[in-house]
Specification:
mainly alpha; flat; two-stranded antiparallel sheet; 7 helices
Length: 183
């Protein structure tokens, strides 16, 4: 997927200059988008009385930019740029920096479904060997949570460092524990 992402960054008619540094940067960028993709099912939408019109406009602008860029001679570089704009919104919703409940429900659904559509179907990106790993990671996070509640900080550190060594970061929030790929 890293190589696919790297190729998608360039215009399809341009020459690619492959280097280790470029592939490492592509790996980091791919994992950021992957983490966003994996976070979408965790978002729950609840009706709010007020809709933030500015946020609505900005989100719709990014969604439109995705379609405009892909239709502009298959400009995948610009498409990936717009994907990061949308990822910024989704990630700010996950971390509670922005309130996604202030979006109209239709806009919220369009934001999430468009990101998933472009990530998987249009750009062909996916998580490699994820389903088997997810069950194991979730089990480790349950043990992590129990150890934290029991103030067994040695075990907490052991689990955190063990997951870090295989490229997984434990993310502690006020009300939950989650994980993401390390980059």
């Amino acid at each position: 997927m890293t190589i696919r992402y790297y190729i998608l960054q360039a215009q399809y008619r341009s020459t690619l200059d492959i280097s280790n540094a470029a592939l490492k940067a592509s790996s980091i960028a791919y994992k950021k988008l992957l983490n966003t993709y994996l976070s979408i099912p965790k978002l729950e939408w609840k009706q709010q009385e007020t809709v933030n019109e500015q946020m609505e406009t900005e989100v719709k602008k990014y969604i439109n930019h995705l379609y405009t860029s892909i239709n502009d001679d298959f400009n995948t570089g610009a498409t990936l740029s717009a994907m990061f704009g949308i990822a910024g919104y989704i990630n700010s919703f996950i971390t509670n920096q922005r309130n996604h409940h202030q979006l109209n429900f239709a806009t919220f659904q369009e934001l999430c479904s468009t990101f998933k559509l472009f990530f998987t179907e249009i750009l062909g990106l996916k998580a490699e060997s994820f389903e088997d790993s997810k069950t194991l990671i979730d089990l480790l996070l349950q043990i992590y949570k129990q150890a934290k509640e029991n103030k067994d900080y040695e075990k907490v550190d052991q689990i955190r460092s063990g997951l870090k060594s295989v490229g997984i970061v434990v993310k502690d929030f006020k009300d939950k524990i989650d994980w993401a790929y390390d980059f």
